Amino acid sequence: MGGKVAVVADRLGWEERQLMRAAQPAGLRIDWVNDEDLSLGSADSSPLAGYDAVLVRSRSYTRGGLVATLAEADGTPVLNTAAAIHACENKLVLRAVLREAGVPVPDFRLVLSRKDYTKALTDLGTPAVLKPVYGGMGKRVTLVRDADLAHSVYDYVEDLGHAFEQACLLEPYLGGGSVRCLVVGREIVAAAEFESAGADWRSNAALGNQSRSLAHDPEVAKVVDAVVDRLGPGIYGVDLFRTESAYLVNEVNHAPAWRGVASTTDTDISSAVIRHVQETLE
Question: What pTM was computed for the model?
C-alpha cells in the first residue's frame, strides 16, 4: 500500500534516514518536515494537509505534542498520538498514569522547593537520583551520592530561571544498568541491556554506553504490554530498571533513537516501523 508520510523532526538523524531507505521498497513516500517552520494553526490550510499520516520524530516533547495535537485536529493520523506524547513528555505525568494503571515504576518524590527536597532525602536516603520533570537524553540527571553534598547539588537547581526547569523528581538510585525495549505497534522488536561506561554512571543510549542484546523475557514483555495498554499502540523506547523483585518502568520515549539497540540485533527495525505506518494507513 502506498501513501505519503511526513516525518516531523528538527533534524534528519540516522533513524530518519533509515526510515526513508526502508520506505521506498514498501511504496511509501516519506518527506522530512522541519518542526521549526510549520506555523500550524490556520483554519483554512495546514502544511500537513497533503499527507496521509504524520510520524512525529521531534526530539522536543513539547514540539512533538503540539504538532501532534494540531495534526489530529485536522483529521490526519499521527504516530504517536498526541495523548501518548503528552503522557511521555512529563516524567511525573507518565509515572502517575502508569502507576494508576498498575504498571510498576520506581518510588519517587516530586521536588518543587528545597523543603520538598529535604523531605524527599529524609524519605528516600542516599544515594538518590535527582532528575528534571521535563527533559531527556540523560541531561541534568544527577546522582546524589552523599547527604553532605546533597544541598550543594540543589543550589544549581535553584539557580535555574524558570519554574518548569526547577521541577524535579528524586528517586532511589537503582544501579548503573537499564533495559531498553524498542516497541513497534504492540510488539517488542528489539531489546538491549545498557551499562554505564567509564566515569559516567548514567546508562543512557544517547550517551554511547555499552549495550548487548537481551533475550526474550516474559517478565519484560508483561510490563511492556501493560505500558502499551495504557498509552496505546505506537513506536516507543521503553526504559526499564531491573530490581530483585521486578522490572520498573523508568521512562517511555515518544520518538526513540534505536541506533544503539539496532547494533545488538539482526532485526530490521526501520522496516518494522514502516510496516506499522502502513497498517495505520489501512
Answer: 0.90
